[in-house]
Write a structure and sequence with these properties.
Elements (H helix, E strand, L loop, with lengths): L1 H18 L47 H15 L3 H14 L4 H14 L2 H13 L5 H15 L1
């Protein structure tokens, strides 16, 4: 066994030398193709979009309030009198989900937002009231709310 170990020890360096030889050929250098710049066409100017202001809906398209919405508006009014504005906001948001084209719900929510100090939301909700075709007293109240909210 001793003889096999000696042969292995002597042949191992020769094996490692044979594996670690340096190749005699030079590696091929990669040549990069010349960079050609193509002039880009100038971008065409984008015409500005006109500012679209919400238009008032015709009177015939004003939604009528379902009885559930009327009940929610009354509940919100009562909750506001009791000082529970959070519940009143919740009732009004529910009324809007039920009848999204009924303008009075938006106006009342706008009033509450104004009382909370969210003037931009109040003006936005009053504008939505007008865009849904509010008429009569509701229309004049919504315009007044917009003016008050924009004054802040």
């Amino acid at each position: 066994m001793n003889y096999i170990k000696k042969i292995t020890l002597f042949s191992l360096p020769w094996l490692l030398v044979a594996c670690g030889t340096i190749p005699t050929t030079r590696p091929v250098q990669e040549t990069k193709p010349p960079v050609v710049t193509v002039p880009q066409p100038k971008p065409k100017p984008v015409p500005q979009q006109p500012v679209i202001k919400p238009q008032e809906a015709p009177v015939s398209s004003v939604a009528k309030a379902p009885s559930a919405v009327v009940a929610l508006l009354q509940r919100a009014e009562q909750q506001e009198r009791e000082g529970n504005n959070r519940a009143a906001v919740s009732s009004l948001e529910r009324a809007i989900r039920i009848a999204p084209r009924y303008p009075e719900s938006y106006y009342r929510l706008g009033e509450l937002r104004y009382k909370e100090g969210s003037y931009s939301q109040a003006a936005s909700l009053a504008q939505k009231t007008l865009s849904l075709g509010a008429e009569g007293m509701l229309r004049s109240l919504a315009k007044a709310l917009i003016e008050k909210a924009n004054a802040h």
